[in-house]
Amino acid sequence: MFRDIEMLRVYLSANHVPPSLVTTATALLRHQGSTEGALTLKQETILGDLPHSIQLAIDTHVKTLPFLRKCPFFDFYSDEVLREISSSLRVNMYVKGDQVVTYGDLGYEMFFLESGSVHVMSADLKTHYSTLEDGAFFGETAMFFNTIRTATILVFSPFCVCLTLRKGDFDTVLRNSEYDEEQILESFKSCLLYTSPSPRDR
């Protein structure tokens, strides 16, 4: 791993890549070589080899309880449905400066911040509205209502891991569970009325 990192550093420097980008690239490679980083990247493959019942049980502890159960928009669902939703969450890794969400884009997914921190920014990136950290979620309104993103979400920490819930996967779980779509949207609207407005992406 250290040989690969040094080779990458030399290659990038020789091609006049900015030092800040060299630092980010080599730091990411070093992180991916660590136990934590390797597990982040490979967890879906590793867990995919386990029986479905065990996968759901693990998801309960690493996804459902720490993320879905803490999100008021999912109070409406049964434990069984939440387990199915959590099994649909995809793991994505980002580095500092990446735009997880871009202002004006149509939203097809929402995000749960597993680790790291992000800044909620204006379209021109000149106004910093707030900072979200571990356990936060964003992008839910755009996903529920197929609206455009109202802010840009910019990674602030060196690395950031998000659990992504795609609308297509979410809709499939709900169809299989025979939930009424109108009832779900009304429940979501009710939650919005009782949560304090914030400038983060909706």
How would you describe this structure in keywords?
202 residues; disordered C terminus; single chain; alpha+beta
Task: Describe the overall structure.
With 202 residues, the chain is of the alpha+beta class. Helix content is 47%, strand content 19%. The protein has helices spanning 2-14, 19-33, 35-48, 52-64, 79-87, 140-145, 167-177, 181-194; strands spanning 90-95, 99-101, 109-115, 118-121, 128-132, 137-138, 152-155, 159-166. Strands 1-8-3-6 form a four-stranded antiparallel sheet. The protein has a four-stranded antiparallel sheet with strand order 2-7-4-5, with no helix packed on it. A hairpin with a 6-residue loop joins strand 4 and strand 5. The termini are far apart.
